[in-house]
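Budget justification note: compute hours in this period were largely spent on complex prediction jobs such as the one shown. Inputs:
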Amino acid sequence: MQLSKLARYGWRAVIGEQHEKRDFAFYVMTQLAKWLDMRIYNKHNSWQDDPEVLAVVRRFDPKYPRIRERHFFLYNMARSLRHLPGETAECGALGGISSHIIMAAFEDSRPHHIFDSFSGLSQPTEHDKPKTESVRALQAGEFASPLERTRQNLAAHPQALFYQGWIPERFAEVADKQFCLVHIDVDFFEPTRDSFDFFFPRLVAGGAIVCDDYGQKTCPGARKALDEAAARVGRKVIHVPTGQGLVLK
Ligand SMILES: C[S@@+](CC[C@H](N)C(=O)[O-])C[C@H]1O[C@@H](n2cnc3c(N)ncnc32)[C@H](O)[C@@H]1O
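Corresponding output:
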C-alpha cells in the first residue's frame, strides 16, 4: 500500500464529501484484496444493486442480501432469450434459486425441466482434481438437499417439472423436446459432459447453454468437459468474468 496515497485519500475521507469517503474505503479494500491475491469489483458497476434483479431474487428469499454476479448474468441471459421458442432446463438445481431466476426472467408458463440427484455431487474423476492444493477439492455428496424442499421453494412456478436421479438417467424423458436455455451446474466432468451432449443437439437456433462452474478453480472437470463437448460440435466456449461459460447454438 502506498503511504502517500493512503494519507492523501485518508485526509479527504475525513474532511471530504460522501463520494471521497467511499473512494477511500474502496482504495483500502482494494489494497487489502490485492495483498490476499483477490480482487473486488469496480464500485461503479450498476448491476450490483439492479432493482429488477434484486426484486426477483428477493421473491425467492426475502433475506437475500446482495445480487450475486452469476445470478445477475443468468437472469439477463434468460431475459434475452424470451423471444425464442423451446423449453428451459436446469441440470443441478439444489434449493432452486437458479431455476427460479430462469422462470422469473421468462415471465411465461413454458415448462422448465429440473434434473438433480437431490443427493449432492456424484463421484469425482481424475479430471475433477484441482490443479493446486490451495483450492479445495469438492467431494461426492456435497450439496445434498431434499427434493421436497426445492419443490416447496419453487411452488410459485407450476411449470417446474422434477426428474430426480443421476444424470443422464432421466434425460430420455425429454428426448422429444426442444430447448432455448439450459443451465448446467453439476460441478464435475462426467455430468457436465453428459448434460451438454444431450441438450446441445436439442437447442433451438439462437439458444444457449450456460455452465455455472466453467471458470471455477474448484471445478476443473466442468471446464474440460465443456471445452471438449463444445469443440465436438464446432463451438468455442465464451468465458465470462463471472466464471460462467456460455455456448451459443
Ligand atoms: C452446486 S449445486 C447447484 C446449485 C444451484 N444451481 C444454485 O444456483 O443454487 C449442484 C447440484 O447438482 C446436483 N448434482 C451434482 N452431480 C449430479 C449428477 N451426477 N446427477 C444429478 N445431479 C447432480 C447436486 O445434487 C446439487 O443439487
